[in-house]
Amino acid sequence: MSLPTGSIPFRENAAQAIRNEALRAAMRNATGVFAVKRADAVSAVPLEEWRDKASETRLQVLDHLADYVDRFAKSAVRAGATVHRAKDAETAREIVACLLKDHGIQKAVKSKSMISEEIHLNDYLEKQGVTVVETDLGEYIIQIAREHPSHIIVPAIHKDRRQVGKLFAEKLGCAYTEDPAALTKIARAKLRQEFLSAEAGISGANFAVADSGSLVIFTNEGNGRMCTTLPRLHIAVTSIEKIIPSVADLPKFIRLLPRSATGQVVTTYLSMITGTRKAGEATGAKDLHIVLLDNGRSSIVAGEYREMLKCIRCGACLNACPVYQTVGGHAYGSTYPGPMGIILTVLLEGMERAHTLLDATTLCGACADVCPVKVPLPRLLRRLREQRTEMGLTPTMERQGMAGFGMAAKSPTLFGAGQQAARLLWPLARKIGVKGTLARMPIPAEQPFRRRIS
Amino acid sequence: MTQDAAIDLFVENAEKAGARVVRVSSAHELNEVLSGMLEGATAVYSPGVTPTEKGLAIPPDRSTEDYVNASACVEEVSAAVAETGSLVCSSQGGKPVQAGLLPGHHIAIVAAEHVYEDLDRFFAALGDAPPTNITLETGPSRTADIELTLTIGVHGPDRLSIIVV
After folding, report:
1. What pLDDT was estimated at residue A3?
2. Out of A330-339, A353-362, B144-153, least confident range
3. Helix, strand, coil distribution of chain B in percent, nearest 5
4. Is A154 within 8 Å of B144 when comparing Cβ atoms?
């Protein structure tokens, strides 16, 4: 099988991940716990009604996305924020770097944001001489390990406590411990100093409210609240599809996001930031800049994959996916892993580069069952696969195999001959000692099933 | 739902989220509960801006204006939501929302009449011109970032006490 140059080597990554016992144990534990917690959290609520309503609201925004972006920008400006529009990742990175430079800031604290991962913000800022300190514990672990998140909610899900203990001892110079509580205390002490001395806070947003210009951020640790209330400058980078119409729409998403993500009724902190510090107030940045990232969304919303933009990034489809559960997030080689990640990556980075990820699904539909906003993930995945075939990017073996099977399936004679051939050739193949997939194939039955029942 | 039922639900859900909740019915009782909660607190920050708080017996020798280094923060929060067991911390009226976050012990006082039954009622009342910062706080700061093991007190307080007046 030959890949176009530059496509993500998913098969190779997955083969490696499957052999990593520690990774597989961590993934089994984590995704199992999440599945149980989510199921508990939604068992006694009118989930279907909530999902329908939330999906409807998301579609309402997508139907008039450009208008909602304007509405949000206007409201945010009225509340005292400065709004920047970035058509792509490069523009967004430059805006953030320029803002920090203009304010003479060399160090910023940051609250977890997948959009910042999508635009590779940290690497870029570091090259410009800015130190970015991740403050979410999971992100902090990933940052000092110099890795990338493997889950959109729990970035360090692939690491066990011993690995974190070793990492802290090595990089932070503390005594080795594998007690999560002790490790958390170490990070708290380190990061508290960063919060208090930081002059800028960088965040994303889970939602942006069109009518009020508010940014809404969900965190459990309190780092989002710190990053957005302590430093004098706050820069929020968010993508345009995160917009919801009004403050009154918030409850339906508050009810669904934490339940779907971690099985919580609500996260510990839910911060709503509306503009800058006003006269007589003692909270809030003096300067708030909101970078609205498009990065392909405007064209996605006009096409047949628009429903992908309903996604609220809860991670439930990752936890439910048998492929993600087995190989973990890094195998995808993309910012977003799991079912939503495959679709988004193909849409954002192009079929040429990401079509290999379309092998990372069994189309079992478990993702669609848990999606809080009813994104038709399996349908979108199937459609992308068709498109891949149309573009001639399907692996040659698969294409020829499917063509052969298609021909045989239409003719009972040919089909029977094929079965007969498999039975006769099987002992021979074993004698030669076939390897790989062929060796793992089930032994053909003495009598085909359709003969046995006829 | 009656207001009493809403308060009961708030207490139940806040306790489920890991907060300690006490209900009091007089200023005397409030001060008694408070002094118990403040035992062991070395520096207490209390933005005395509301009528409820003005009558509070914060020990003067342990009171501080520096919330960054305080060990406890006592404040009246603007509202609570029964559905989720959340407190509503607001920047309205000049309150530093971050003050409830930095000290290890956050003691929040909430007036019974400010308890909303659910999120819809609260956000409808808030409207589309909210103050600069509104934070819903539900239980103490937590993380499960290491092996999904629940750990309390990451960046925020590891103890949350609520007094419903």
Report:
1. 42
2. B144-153
3. 30, 25, 45
4. yes
Domain of residue A285, residue span: 45-298
Q: What is the CA radius of gyration of chain A?
A: 25
Query: What does the block give as tokens for A93?
Result: 């990175």
CATH code of the domain covering residue A69: 3.40.50.10420
Q: What is the DSSP letter of A87?
A: S
Confidence of residue A430 (pLDDT cuts 50, 70, 90): confident
A166 contacts in B (CB within 8 Å)? none
Does A389 fall in a domain? no
| A236 contacts A82 by C-beta, under 8 angstroms | no
**Using CA atoms, how far apart are residues A76 and A69, in angstroms rounded to an integer?**
11
Q: Please name the amino acid found at residue A431.
A: K
Does residue A244 fall inside a structural domain? yes
What is the mean pLDDT of the segment spanning A86-106? Answer: 97
CA distance B28 to chain A (A): 30
> According to CATH, what is the number of the domain B3-164?
3.40.50.10420
Residues of B in contact with A232 (CB under 8 A): none
Domain residue ranges in chain B: 3-164
- Considering only CB atoms, which chain A residues are within 8 Å of B128? 75, 209, 211-212, 246-247
Chain A residue with the nearest C-alpha to that of B131: A274
